[in-house]
């Protein structure tokens, strides 16, 4: 069986002092810190590098020291770069601007290198064939921006006006014609949002 290569970019993954090595396969525990020569050999066997965003490329609003230089090095050697984050509060375009502001190569690190849940959901809806139907959206600005870019019509976003909340059993009667509903993180989520979502034709992506 061929074991994957483990890259120790900080040269701290030593068998004698790294607690995480205890539970690894023996062949993985035998890995040694990288040096310029061994790194060059490893580079030849890798086409794509996937990076998390917050905590790897940046921390809050500050760049992680040395990260832009590493990205430039990988780009120079024709490696594909993908930035993968689970944060859907912002669109890929917003994250691309942040990368440029922090000093990353904007020509090679743009929104096409970024993947987040907002982009995935919008792309899935776009490919599903909405045929003019609107989407009832519970999500943040990042999801709305991605859906706007693909021309997906939606409603239900933003703070909910709850004026009929105390009108009795008919308070949540809502005439909506939709085929799909999308759930995401929403600061304005409430029982009103969820009650309006209840629709036999709705489908949660």
Kindly describe this structure:
There is one protein chain. The chain is of the alpha/beta class and 205 residues long. The protein has two domains: 19-116, HAD superfamily/HAD-like (Rossmann fold); 118-197, no CATH class. Helices cover 29% and strands 14% of the residues. The chain has helices spanning 26-29, 36-44, 67-76, 92-101, 117-127, 141-149, 191-197, and strands at residues 48-51, 58-59, 62-63, 80-84, 114-115, 134-138, 154-155, 178-183. Helix 5 (117-127) runs parallel beside helix 6 (141-149). The radius of gyration is 23 Å and the shape is elongated. Residues 1-18, 165-178 and 200-205 have low confidence and may be disordered.
Query: Could you say how many structural domains there are in total?
Result: 2
Rg computed from alpha carbons, rounded to a whole number of angstroms: 23 Å
Strand order of the largest sheet: 1-4-5
Q: Which runs of at least 5 residues are low in confidence (pLDDT < 50)?
A: 1-18, 165-178, 200-205
| Largest beta-sheet details | 3 strands, parallel
Number of helices: 7
Can you count the beta strands? 8
| Helical/strand content category | alpha/beta
- Report mean pLDDT, rounded to a whole number: 75
Secondary structure layout:
Layout: H1 26-29, H2 36-44, E1 48-51, E2 58-59, E3 62-63, H3 67-76, E4 80-84, H4 92-101, E5 114-115, H5 117-127, E6 134-138, H6 141-149, E7 154-155, E8 178-183, H7 191-197
Parallel strand pairs: 1-4, 4-5, 6-7, 6-8
Antiparallel strand pairs: 2-3
Helix pairs in contact: 5-6
GO cellular component, one term: cytoplasm
GO molecular function, one term: phosphatase activity
Organism: Caenorhabditis tropicalis
